[in-house]
Design a protein that fits this description.
The chain is α+β, with helices and mostly antiparallel strands. It is 44% helix and 19% strand. The protein is built from 20 helices and 21 strands. Helix 4 crosses helix 11, helix 5 packs across helix 9 and helix 8 packs antiparallel against helix 9.
Length: 623
């Protein structure tokens, strides 16, 4: 629908009195705001009624609206979920935007196994395991897991027990007294289960028994003049004390809750979250938001909760917030459905909870004050750089950028990489790697065609199957190719065949393999080498190359790169590399004569005959 054919007053009359989501567009047809309503007819009309006190943000936004569209839903709850997804996908200018995309680690105890393990997990799965967290530091989680292995001798291997009992020798952890080797049957299932029970007690915050036990063992070892053992117990005790001191009691009832408060300054806001699990403060974190100047605190918290809890895997039974929320009952219903149990949202007026909210607000203000200048510099490196790229290419509203690269060793084991940058920051959870399946030899164009076809075909299929956005379902606003005209044309060909309209830009390098400029719409565009745009493009190009090389090295380290050559008598690493450098594919090696093989540096007539006979006798018979 063209803007000049859209009569706002006439379209307002057509709005249904049903729940749904409305989407506002500006003069360039960019999405500038997404909202939900229990009645689209009443809600959307309010924006265009001059008698209403709309607030600074809405008044400013309304002047830019040129058209709107809407999606009818069955309920307001369904509208809220759709609103969250659309905001996450389009990043509208006038919606409060969460600038961080963090994931938090959990400690997982695989209690569904006969001999459970302790491990770090990023997601809560529907299995029989117990999950503890989330924690704000992956490093702290790893330290805790290491401590638990030392204290309770829990296995860290992935062997299937008891099926694999006795099949292999015990690992190093058994010899350094960090595992009791259930893989050898050295400990019964019952005794091992007692250790796991103690692990669960520890993770629930019950440190007293282990502290007392370690103190007694340290004292006994000291009295027996076993000073090295006494030092070992002392270090373990110090580690336990360090963890226990971090967790302050905040609720004698042992509840799970999050405390949320914020501080604002002009167009910046910081939300501070305290994580309370089992009545103990286990951590805190802060989140930056981009807001419209003068926006109400309750609206900011409302937007933050919708965006943050749409993606976090753990939802506590209670949220304690600083301000009243407009959609408090709907948010409670939504969170309860996600959690699978009742979730309450409270605004405390007195008592311990009110003091915790005040403490969180003070922390948010400190972070905002301290980091304001750093935030401005960071914005220049990220969002500012993206805006420079927009200006260079004549595009608008670039949020998600995807860059692609191909890596191989003279055609052997080609791999592809996809890296994602969201508002100028790497979004590593969305990175993807591809092992090329349908292309033989050093065909970068063919390999890239396969990667892009798989990526977007997969994304289109997932979009049809699910309303959730993320991973392959989120499409980029700009595709960056590691190369010039050829790579760009390959991408455009793939997108055209799938009926997708996404801008594609090449990242061109000079003869020294340094970023030189951008190739867009059949034209090379020079970039100021001192600009933030140039630095961002360079970072993206280097990251795509690094990710591809890393995957390729990973496959090589596993012996997956052309391992058939290792089976040939007289062919070691040097000769294998020489063959790979001089032939573009395995078929070329198979088709080479003895003379052609012997002419390669590092080869001789004997080794050449060995290769020739291998491919023309046993290899042919086996294949």
């Amino acid at each position: 629908m063209e803007n000049n054919n859209f009569n706002i007053q006439e379209e307002l009359k057509k709005l249904p009195g049903k729940p749904g989501v409305y989407i506002m567009h500006d003069e360039t047809d960019a999405i500038i705001y997404v909202g939900k309503a229990i009645s689209l007819k009443n809600r959307v009309r309010q924006y265009f009624q001059s008698s209403r006190n709309k607030g600074i943000k809405i008044e400013q936004m309304v002047t830019h609206i040129r058209r709107f569209e809407y999606i009818v839903t069955d309920s307001e709850l369904e509208a809220l979920v759709l609103e969250c997804n659309l905001i996450k996908e389009h990043h509208p200018k006038y919606n409060t935007m969460l600038m961080d995309d963090k994931t938090y680690p959990f400690i997982k105890v695989s209690t569904g196994e006969a001999f459970p393990r302790i491990m770090l997990a990023r997601k809560i799965q529907k299995d029989k395991a117990k999950y503890f967290g989330p924690y704000t530091s992956a490093g702290a989680v790893r330290d805790t897991i290491e401590l638990l292995h030392k204290l309770y001798h829990i296995r860290s291997c992935s062997r299937n027990l008891p099926r694999d009992t006795g099949k292999e020798r015990p690992c190093l952890n058994y010899h350094i007294r960090q595992c009791d080797a259930p893989c050898q049957g050295y400990i019964s299932k019952e005794d091992y289960g007692k250790a796991v029970t103690e692990v669960v007690r520890f993770l629930n915050g019950n440190f007293d028994s282990i502290q007392k036990e370690l103190e007694e063992k340290m004292q006994a070892a000291s009295e027996a003049l076993e000073f090295e053992r006494a030092i070992e117990y002392r270090e373990l005790l110090n580690s336990v004390n360090k963890i226990s001191q971090k967790q302050k009691i905040t609720d004698s009832r042992g509840a799970d809750r999050d405390i949320l408060a914020l501080a604002t300054a002009e167009e910046d806001a910081v939300v501070q979250v305290f994580f309370i699990r089992g009545g103990r403060l286990i951590g805190r974190d802060h989140f930056y938001l981009r807001i419209v100047k003068g926006e109400a605190a309750g609206n900011i918290l409302d937007s933050f909760i919708k965006q943050y809890y749409a993606g976090t895997p753990f939802i506590p039974g209670e949220l304690v917030v600083q301000e009243e929320l407009e959609d408090i009952e709907l948010i409670e219903e939504w969170l309860s459905a996600k959690r699978g149990g009742k979730v309450s949202v409270r605004v405390p007026k007195k008592g311990t909870k009110e003091k915790l909210v005040e403490l969180a607000a003070n922390n948010a203000q400190l972070v905002l004050t301290k980091d304001k200048e750093r935030l401005k510099r960071e914005e220049g490196r990220t969002i500012g750089a993206v805006k420079e790229i927009e200006k260079l290419l004549g595009l608008q509203n670039i949020c998600r950028m995807e860059a692609y690269d191909i890596s191989n060793t003279n055609g052997f084991e080609s791999v592809g990489s996809m890296v994602v940058y969201d508002r100028g920051r790497p979004k590593r959870n969305d990175y993807r790697k591809f092992k090329i399946k349908g292309i033989q030899g050093a065909d970068d164009y063919g390999s890239m065609r396969e990667v892009l076809t798989r990526r977007f075909t997969h994304g289109l299929r997932e979009r049809e199957e699910s309303k959730e956005l993320g991973g392959f379902t989120a499409f980029p606003d700009l595709i960056l190719m590691d190369g010039g005209k050829g790579q760009v044309n390959v991408a455009l060909e793939v997108l055209g065949s799938l009926h997708l309209n996404i801008p594609v830009c090449g990242m061109v390098k000079d003869d020294r393999h340094r970023t030189r400029g951008l190739y867009y719409q059949n034209e090379e565009i020079a970039i100021d080498r001192s600009s933030e745009a140039f630095r961002l493009v360079t970072r993206i190009q280097d990251e795509a190359h690094r990710f591809a090389i890393e995957y390729h090295k990973q496959l090589r380290s596993k012996g997956q790169v052309h391992s058939i050559l290792d089976d040939i008598e007289g062919i070691g690493p040097a000769r294998r590399k020489a063959l790979m450098r001089n032939f573009t594919s395995l078929d070329e090696i198979k088709g080479a004569t003895v003379e052609e093989l012997a002419a390669i540096p590092a080869m001789n007539e004997k080794s050449a005959e060995s290769v020739y006979k291998f491919f023309h006798s046993c290899y042919t018979e086996n294949n």
